[in-house]
Structures are given as structure tokens and as C-alpha cells.
Design brief:
Chain lengths: 161, 391
């Protein structure tokens, strides 16, 4: 049941436990308990909304930063990753295979703000060897959602055999 | 002045328009209708399929294919049959690609029915069988399936209608409109009846990919003794959400497929070439998409079933296709009256069971090829209506 609940929530974080129970044909209490359990075990880590900020008045810039670091003895990359992900400006941090070590996704009001963060905070960390910054120009698809999908409506006939 | 002469053949004049068409004519005049009335998926055709079709158009692959369809597609279909229903068909002479399963119904009947032959037809079922039997010169013999049997065809019902004129049996499962399926033991009982009789089965398996719970579709062609007397019809419309592409297929004994190909060659030439390339891609790469759609239908099925039961409508648990078939007898209305008044008073379109056979009286067909939110909206209106008129 856990995976089925997770798939439903991943698709629509607002879906109610009642509806999940109907869809999966399970008792509502079991569904609620299961969700609580997964929250406490941090299988479910949060409930976000996918927003296309480009369509709002809010100034908003995203940057992907490739970061090369020196791993630390006994702690590998975790210690330096933690130093980075604790900053509020940092949206995501992934440890990567390949030419660099950490992929850091930053969000800020404008390019200047992000540049400041990189030069003042990120590059100056002891273990950071180098950074390469890529600014996002346009988001087409995020978390499986096409952001500007042309709405065609239901073109099917009202009734068909 | 003399009355204008009608040139339309008597045989065609006698065939009525389908009840669904009549109902559609009423429904389309009303603004803002919430519909549970369609018989086609709401999903877009998976992008991999559309992209492949575009690529082939760009390449200029727009000429006729061989009459029976692209060899590559028939080879892929042959493997698909083996994988899905555990039956082997030779792609060279036992498979034909048709213009939807609809054409398959027509040419299968024309290939086997002699004038005056009786064709057994379980109802409620899809609207085309009866007129196609008649146009092929056959005599439809209706078998009424019953809700107490979950609308499955029973051996007794079958035996009861067999005469020495019986030539064929149409086996429409998973069923539109009831959502009923036939499981292996049901089919074995039917096979037992047919074993020593010369009756060919036309098994319309267009909803084969859409069965729910832990049940997978079983084809009567895979039951002992039935392979040589079964024509399997299927298509891409429902499973791959490809209704508008019009690609179906039929498989069966060599001589029957040859006869069907002969008819197909004269009336159709070949199914749409772009559609055939798209279908090939569907078979090759879209199992995951089909599974995801099936899962979504299943969620909606349970949601809608609970909705009907909560509002006090009896509804058997359909295990296939994408329809529920609740009983509306508690309102004292006929199916036609229920649907017309529901449309006028609540602006919800559902299909009267009688549009799919007289034995559908007292039932309505509700499709769950809609989002759960849309289904929910429709259910709220249906509940109001049922509460008001329940006797």
C-alpha cells in the first residue's frame, strides 16, 4: 500500500486521505496511519507546489552550479554538502558522478544576488576547488509537469458508442 | 407531384440508427453538459507513438502497405499474441491489420456468414454487431446476459439458443457496456458446449488490456479445442488511447483470415500507413504507458463504484473495460427516461442501457474515461437526481 499511496501523493499532494482510501479500496484509518508513519520516517519529506514563477511579477532566477570539492577523510562528501545545503539560497544539492562532485541548485531574486552568493559564500568554502555556474533561461518542464501546456479541452464527442 | 423516390436499399432502411446516436443528437444541443457518455479513452496517445508517426510522415512513408498490413507490424503482433494470450499465429497468413476492430467485426462476419445463418449475440453489447450481422445476411439471435451472473455468458444460456442454423457466436468480452469479463473457467464451460459443434467464435477483445484486480485477460482462442474455430479481434484504440488512428487487427485460422483479407482488399486496400507505423511503435515501446493508464482507470473504477453504491444504486463490480453499469430501477423510470431527464435536469450525459440492447433496460452505462474530479462532479449531480426520484 505504501508505494501506491506515494504515487498518488507524488502526483497530487492535495489529495485527501479519504479519496486515497476509496481509490485503493482500503480503510481510511489504515491510509492515515500509513501516511503518518511515512512522514515520521521521512519517506515523505514535504508537500510542495509546482509554480511557474515566470508568469508572476516576482523576480526569480535559478542557477545550476557545478561544484568540485576535496572530499574529507572519514566524512567523504557529506560534511561539505551539509555546509552548502544549510544555506537558504540553496534549493537542491546532489552528489554526482562524472566531471564534478556536487550539483547545487540556487534560487534568487536576480543574477546579482546569485553571483554574490557564489563568490562570497560558496567559492570561499575551504573544500571547494572550483565552481561553474549555469543560469536557467526558461523552464519547459519541471517535476514531470509541462509548464506551458496548450489547453485543448475535451475534444471527444459528448456521447459515443 | 409524386413523392420523391428514395433510392436507399430496403435492407439498409430497416436498420435503425443506434440509440447512442439518437441520444447524442439530444445531448449536443445542451450547453455545459458534464458527460460520462464516451466510449473512448481521455488520455493522449503516448508521445513515443505520435513522434514515430511524425517521423515516418517526414520520411515520406505514405504509400499503400500490403493488404494484410506491414509485415513488421504483423510479426510484432504475432509476438504480442504469444506474450499476452499465449496463442501462436503465423504473421504471414493468420493476421490481418484492419481499420479499427470495427472493420474486423464487419469482415469477420462477412467471411463466415451465409445468407440465413444464425449468429448468436450476447447483449448488452456494442452497437455494431447486430447491424453488421444483418448486413452480412445473417440472422442475429440475441442471448440476454444477466446481472446475477455478472453479465457473463453461461453455457446454459448458450445451449438454449443453439439451433442447426447457428453459424457463429460473438463473444464480446471484456464487455462494453457492462464491464463484465469472462475468466478462464467461464470460457472452458463455453468451449465445452462448442467442442463438437461447427460454430465459429468471433471474440472481440478490444478491451483485453483493461482488466483489473489481479485478473489478466484470457482469450477463448487459448482454450483447448478452440484455436481452430476462433477469430480474435483487437485493436489499438482502447489500450493505447489511439481511437482516431483507426488501427485494429484480426487473427485466426488461415482460411478465414484469407477470406477476410479478400474482402478487405476490395473494400479497404490497406489500413492507414501512418497508423500502422504508429501501431508498431506502440507494440514495441508502450507497455509502461499502458500499465500506467490501466492503473489510473482502476483508481477511477473504484472511485465511481463506491459513488454509485453510496448513493444507493445497485452496481455489480465490473472488472474490465472502462464502464460501470448501475441499475436505476429504484427510480421507477425506464433507462431512456432516466437518461433524458438526467440530461435536462442535471446536465449529466450517461448512456441508456437500452442503446446497447433491449436487455439493457433498467441500467445506464457510465464511462470512467474521465478524471476523478470530473467523475466526482457528475456523481454529485446523479446523486441529487436519484435522491429526488427514488421510490
Amino acid at each position: 500500500m505504501e508505494n501506491e499511496i506515494l504515487e498518488l501523493l507524488e502526483n497530487d499532494s492535495r489529495i485527501s486521505a479519504e479519496r486515497i482510501a476509496v481509490i485503493l479500496d482500503k480503510p481510511i484509518e489504515d491510509v492515515k496511519d500509513c501516511i503518518k508513519k511515512m512522514e515520521s520516517e521521512q519517506i515523505i519529506c514535504g508537500y510542495n507546489t509546482i509554480i511557474n514563477w515566470d508568469k508572476t511579477q516576482k523576480e526569480f532566477v535559478t542557477a545550476l552550479v557545478e561544484v568540485r570539492v576535496t572530499p574529507q577523510r572519514d566524512r567523504g562528501f557529506d560534511q561539505i554538502a551539509k555546509r552548502i545545503y544549510n544555506f537558504n539560497e540553496v534549493k537542491s544539492v546532489y552528489l554526482m558522478s562524472g566531471a564534478y562532485d556536487l550539483m547545487v541548485i540556487l534560487e534568487g531574486k536576480n543574477i546579482k544576488e546569485i553571483s554574490h552568493f557564489i563568490s562570497d559564500k560558496l567559492s570561499t568554502l575551504d573544500s571547494v576547488l572550483s565552481t561553474a555556474t549555469h543560469f536557467v533561461l526558461k523552464k519547459y518542464k519541471d517535476h514531470g509537469i509541462i509548464l506551458e501546456k496548450s489547453k485543448t479541452g475535451d475534444e471527444r464527442m459528448i456521447v459515443s458508442p | 407531384m409524386t413523392e420523391k423516390k428514395s433510392f436507399v436499399a430496403d435492407k439498409i432502411k430497416k436498420i435503425p440508427y443506434s440509440g447512442i446516436r439518437k441520444f447524442f443528437d439530444v445531448a449536443k444541443e445542451i450547453e455545459g453538459v458534464i458527460s460520462l457518455g464516451v466510449g473512448e479513452p481521455d488520455f493522449e496517445t503516448p508521445w513515443a507513438i505520435r513522434e514515430r508517426a511524425i517521423y515516418n510522415l517526414e520520411k515520406g512513408r505514405t504509400v499503400y502497405t500490403s493488404n494484410a498490413g506491414l509485415m513488421e507490424l504483423r510479426e510484432e503482433l504475432s509476438q504480442y499474441f504469444e506474450r499476452k494470450i499465449n496463442v501462436k499465429y503465423n504473421p504471414k497468413n493468420q493476421i490481418i491489420v484492419t481499420v479499427g476492430a470495427s472493420e474486423g467485426i464487419d469482415i469477420a462476419l462477412r467471411a463466415v456468414v451465409n445468407s440465413g445463418d444464425e449468429v448468436l449475440l450476447p447483449q448488452p453489447s456494442y452497437v455494431s454487431y447486430k447491424p453488421c450481422i444483418e448486413m452480412a445476411g445473417g440472422v442475429p439471435v440475441i442471448i440476454t446476459t444477466k446481472v446475477e451472473n455478472d453479465f457473463r455468458l453461461t453455457p446454459d444460456e448458450l445451449l438454449d439458443k443453439i439451433t442447426d442454423k447457428t453459424k457463429a457466436l460473438i463473444l464480446p468480452y471484456p464487455n462494453n457496456p457492462t464491464g463484465a469479463i469472462m475468466e478462464r473457467n467461464d470460457l472452458e464451460k463455453i468451449a465445452e458446449v462448442l467442442k463438437d459443434r461447427d460454430i465459429v467464435v468471433i471474440s472481440d477483445e478490444i478491451y483485453a488490456e483493461l482488466t483489473y484486480g489481479d485478473r489478466t485477460h484470457v482469450s477463448i482462442a487459448s482454450i483447448d479445442g478452440m484455436y481452430d474455430k476462433t477469430i480474435v479481434l483487437n485493436g489499438f484504440s482502447k489500450a493505447y488511447s489511439m481511437t482516431g488512428w483507426r488501427v485494429g487487427y484480426a487473427a485466426g485460422p488461415e482460411d478465414i483470415i484469407a477470406a477476410m483479407t479478400k474482402i478487405h482488399q476490395y473494400i479497404i486496400m490497406c489500413a492507414s500507413t501512418t497508423g500502422q507505423y504508429a501501431a508498431l511503435e506502440a507494440l514495441k515501446s508502450c507497455d509502461v504507458s499502458v500499465a500506467a493508464m490501466r492503473k489510473e482507470y482502476d483508481a477511477r473504477r473504484r472511485f465511481m463504484l463506491k459513488g454509485f453504491r453510496d448513493m444507493g444504486l445497485e452496481c455489480f463490480e465490473a472488472l474490465g473495460a472502462f464502464y460501470l453499469f448501475p441499475c436505476i430501477k429504484c427510480t421507477g423510470m425506464s433507462s431512456d427516461e432516466f437518461c433524458e431527464r438526467l440530461l435536462n435536469e442535471q446536465k449529466v450525459a450517461v448512456v441508456p442501457g437500452t442503446a446497447l440492447g433491449e436487455s439493457g433496460e433498467g441500467f445506464i452505462r457510465c464511462s470512467y474515461a474521465y478524471s476523478i474530479d470530473d467523475i466526482n462532479k457528475a456523481l454529485i449531480h446523479i446523486e441529487k437526481f436519484v435522491k429526488k426520484y427514488r421510490k
